[in-house]
Design goal:
Oligomer: heterodimer
Distance between the termini of chain A: 26 Å
Shape of chain A: elongated
Helix content of chain B: 55-70%
Strand order of the largest sheet of chain B: 3-4-2-5
Number of domains of chain B: 2
Structural class of chain B: alpha+beta
Largest interface: A-B, 73 and 71 residues
Strand order of the largest sheet of chain A: 2-3-1-11
Strand content of chain A: 15-25%
Number of domains of chain A: 2
Number of strands of chain B: 6
Distance between the termini of chain B: 41 Å
Radius of gyration of chain B: 25 Å
Helix content of chain A: 55-70%
CATH topology of the largest domain in chain A: Multidrug efflux transporter AcrB transmembrane fold
CATH class of the largest domain in chain A: Mainly Alpha
Order of helices and strands of chain B: HEHEHEEHEHHEHHHH
Number of strands of chain A: 11
Largest sheet of chain B: 4 strands, antiparallel
CATH class of the largest domain in chain B: Mainly Alpha
Number of helices of chain B: 10
Structural class of chain A: alpha+beta
Largest sheet of chain A: 4 strands, antiparallel
Number of helices of chain A: 10
Chain lengths: 401, 301
């Protein structure tokens, strides 16, 4: 009976420790990390009104679509494009080699126009079907354009009417080229020459392919954390986190012995559950997020400290081990509930009101509080009951009393 | 009888003031070392191949009319040259920034880019406003919850000890002129969360003991007793969070230094205010109200 109970306890603990211990590192590394932790570029854009185009819901949605397309075309890894509030767009680009160029490209309106000599616009980027960078026989970089069916027709008419005259191709009101039309072009194809480099031609092709932004966007904020610093802080945060956890674990073992051991097992389970939740929510872990985790870990440990201190009091008052433990849980629960609920209320408010660092903090804290109430109370209680059923240790000392 | 915290409450209030007043003075006279997250601007964090001096960096900045910028060397010892330089200027556009960075390469030498940040001024003021609104609203929510579960006096006393912690951290950061950035806001929120949690545990004990007050036991004895009953827990819990943040401060990277420093100060202050401020404030208020009630009753009809 006793040995069966002990086996059960050991088996459950072994499973939790092995499974969690095995998965915790890969899991922690698979949660998306913010740029403050791993390096990369963070950009905040804002759509702004211009006399030509006012910002509305649809425009912002289209801007996001086009930006996503541009980023994909640039072949950047794991980009995040998020809308924030009404007019803002947040872009996170981990590990970009040349962030300035990327930012410049992403935020470009890229409105392509074909104008005759009088300055009247006949065609825009909307009439394009495709655009590709090419190199011609004389090693010149150029962008080959292919018009849509409708666009091709208009272009044919335009070139027919303007033989011997200039047709200007403009990007964002800046003249790219201003060639003279030699003969009507009917095939629905055109080229833009005058690019300095092949790279430049390629970027222009991407911009034209992804379409022009319906409204102007401004860069409000850019942050780039270089790879050296990124790697450094990633390594150091990992060490710091491990050392911190080991200290907490050692402390709990030292002061609460077996009960502390059980609390540590719950803490491990808590960390893994938190990571799973973060991963499922596709949340990005940032520095403020880590603050939230530290606080919720502190609260998880605190819950167990409260229970065990209460247990010690009850045991000192002469109750049996099991009765004191039960009383410890019941009495401490009210305390834990009220203190955690107060923090939870505050953190939910921060979640809904906050943006950026405040929100990052609120996400991990809210999740952390809910999960830690479960692990620090329920799981610790179940495990301790199992252990006490085994009646292996009859002295309160084994439980830190 | 154990040492009476309530009896010595004025000493503990005085100790709090001893820390807060110089901080307040510093806040008024020299203000804060606000990062570009709040002021807007451009930040360059460069690591040169060889140690450089502030004067060298400033000389280059001067050529671009940026002599009013903040230049900091991340020197570990007291030397006037270090490879790591932090420069804060007003908002530079891409080409201005590129020009300055090329200037550094030409005049000083090669460097590794650690961080480049640009924050528009609008975002900066928004963050400040948002942080204050978030803090105040979360305080109101906490007062409401505590008033509902306990009584309003606990709620207000709890928030007063939170304000204490916020001022302690702000004051020390102003005194030390440590840079305040967006993650500092998260640190403040964490401190507030910790402190209220810590305070409620003691209040909870007071609430419980109040129900079973023995005859002849005074309010101050009961409060003292409650504080001492929870003392071990208060110390153990603050130790565990200090382990985690201490590790981050001493072993973490540069980007987490100021952040974990704020947490360290805040957690200690949070523990102090929960034990030595929150309960005494509640006690004084309660005692005052009780006395008034008694007087009211004594008054002949």
């Amino acid at each position: 009976m006793r040995s069966a109970a002990l086996t059960k306890f050991l088996a459950v603990v072994a499973i939790i420790v092995l499974v969690c211990g095995y998965y915790i590192t890969p899991l922690a590394l698979s949660v998306k990390q913010g740029l403050d932790l791993q390096g990369g570029t963070h950009v905040v854009l804002e759509a702004v009104d211009t006399p030509e185009a006012k910002v509305d819901e649809d425009a912002v949605k289209r801007v996001i679509k086009i930006i996503e397309k541009r980023i994909n075309e640039l072949g950047l890894t794991e980009p995040i494009v998020q809308r924030q509030g009404e007019r803002r767009i947040i872009i996170e680009l981990p590990g970009v080699k040349d962030p300035e160029k990327a930012i410049e490209m992403i935020g470009k309106t890229a409105l392509l126009e074909f104008q005759d000599e009088s300055g009247k616009t006949y065609l825009t980027g909307k009439d394009l079907k495709d655009s590709r960078a090419q190199i011609d026989q004389s090693k010149q970089s150029l962008v080959a354009l292919e018009f849509s069916e409708q666009g091709g027709k208009i272009f044919g008419e335009l070139t027919s009417k303007n033989v011997g005259k200039h047709i200007a191709i403009l990007l964002d009101k800046q003249v790219l080229t201003n060639p003279v039309v030699n003969e009507p072009i009917m095939g629905g194809k055109a080229v833009i020459t005058g690019n300095k480099t092949q790279e430049e031609a390629e970027r222009l092709a991407i911009l034209l392919r992804s379409g022009s932004l319906p409204v102007k966007v401004e860069v409000l904020e850019t942050r780039t954390v270089g790879p050296t610093l990124g790697d450094d802080s990633k390594e150091k945060s990992k060490t710091a986190f491990m050392v911190g956890t080991i200290l907490i674990v050692a402390f709990m073992l030292l002061y609460y012995r077996l009960a502390g051991f059980v609390a540590n097992v719950s803490l491990l389970l808590y960390l893994v559950l938190l990571l799973i939740c973060l991963k499922m929510l596709n949340a990005t872990l940032t520095l403020p997020g880590i603050a939230g985790i530290i606080l919720s870990m502190g609260m998880a440990v605190d819950a167990n400290v409260l229970i065990f201190e209460r247990f010690k009091e009850e045991h000192r008052a002469g109750k049996t081990l099991r009765a004191s433990m039960d009383a410890g849980f019941t009495r401490a629960f009210a305390t834990i509930f009220d203190s955690n609920m107060t923090t939870l209320f505050a953190s939910v408010i921060l979640f809904f009101l906050g943006t950026g660092p405040i929100k990052g903090f609120a996400i991990t804290l809210t999740l952390g509080i809910v999960l830690s109430m479960f692990t620090a109370i329920t799981i610790t209680k179940i495990l301790l009951k199992m252990l006490m059923n085994a009646s292996l240790f009859k002295s309160g000392k084994a439980y830190g009393a | 009888m154990k040492f009476s915290i309530i009896g010595k409450r004025y000493w503990f209030f005085a100790l709090s003031l001893l820390i807060i007043l110089p901080g307040l003075f510093s806040m008024v006279t020299q203000g804060f070392n606000l990062g570009i997250d709040f002021t807007g601007g451009t930040l360059l964090d460069l690591k040169f191949a060889k140690p450089v001096t502030v004067a060298e960096v400033r000389a280059v900045l001067q050529e671009y009319n940026l002599e009013n910028s903040v230049v900091q060397l991340a020197a570990t010892e007291k030397t006037d040259a270090a490879p790591n330089v932090l420069i804060r200027t007003h908002v530079l556009n891409e080409s201005e920034r590129k020009a300055v960075m090329e200037g550094f390469t030409a005049k000083i030498g090669q460097y590794d880019v650690m961080r480049v940040e640009k924050v528009g001024a609008t975002i900066g003021s928004e963050l400040t406003r948002e942080a204050i609104i978030a803090l105040v609203l979360s305080w109101l929510a906490m007062i409401a919850y505590i008033s509902y579960r306990f009584e309003y006096r606990f709620g207000v006393a709890g928030i007063m000890s939170l304000i204490h912690d916020v001022f302690v951290v702000l004051g020390i950061f102003s005194l030390l002129q440590k840079e305040i950035d967006a993650s500092f806001v998260a640190a403040l929120l964490t401190i507030v969360g910790y402190s209220i949690n810590d305070t409620i545990v003691i209040f909870d004990r007071i609430r419980e003991n109040m129900k079973s007050m023995k005859k002849g036991e005074s309010l101050s004895e009961m409060v003292d007793h409650s504080i001492w009953q929870t003392m071990t827990r208060s110390i153990y819990t603050v130790l565990t969070v200090l382990f985690a943040t201490g590790a981050l401060y001493f072993l973490g990277g540069e980007t987490t230094k100021n952040f974990s420093l704020a947490l360290l100060i805040g957690f200690v202050s949070g523990m102090y205010s929960s034990i030595f401020n929150a309960s005494p404030i509640w006690y004084m208020w309660k005692e005052h109200d009780e006395k008034k009630r008694m007087e009211h009753r004594m008054r002949p009809a």
